[in-house]
Amino acid sequence: MTRPTAKICGLSTAVTLDAAIAGGASHVGFVFFPKSPRDMPPEAAAALIQRTPRGVATVGVFVDPDDELIDRVVAAGIGALQLHGKESPERTAALAARTGLEIWKAVPVRTRADLNMAKSYRGAATRILYDAKVPEGAAIPGGLGLRFDWTLLDGFAHPLPWALSGGLDADNVAEAIGVTQARLVDVSSGVESAPGVKDVDKIARFLQSVARL
Fold this sequence. Notes:
eight-stranded parallel barrel, two-stranded antiparallel ribbon
């Protein structure tokens, strides 16, 4: 079995991007959603994307984006799109066709039945991201530090390559990987000192925890 790798999401500064790269992150993520404390303009992200070395994948995070925003982020050089809204399989497939990029689709999970949504994205998305379902009325659909019951994934026949997200941090990521056998984990709030403020020491600790596995 391949060793697990990690994506550090919601980066917005060169210092924290460099910390993620130095620590061995396989993926780095940038958020393009105005309601998020991690939101940044595509034009600002372009400099960070260009700073990211080959071999580290760049991922743009969106919530029900329009084509104009997608086009601006693609022009900035992003390598993959991560969809966190209510994008249908048809919309997901259309964005894959429009951009030619890898598409991740977040599936919010609270119960075992929630996992079944992943099956409808077979042929539309490239990867599923299982994340904790947020409370009704939450302003943003992720990045809140919530986790779901990892044992729900036990025995589930994954329709696509997948990653695990939701409430991960340096102290619980080893347990999360042990329970789920995830090969890719995605962290945002778990490496922050405040909402939207990444902490280089927390990034280092998280990546060290993954590297030990």
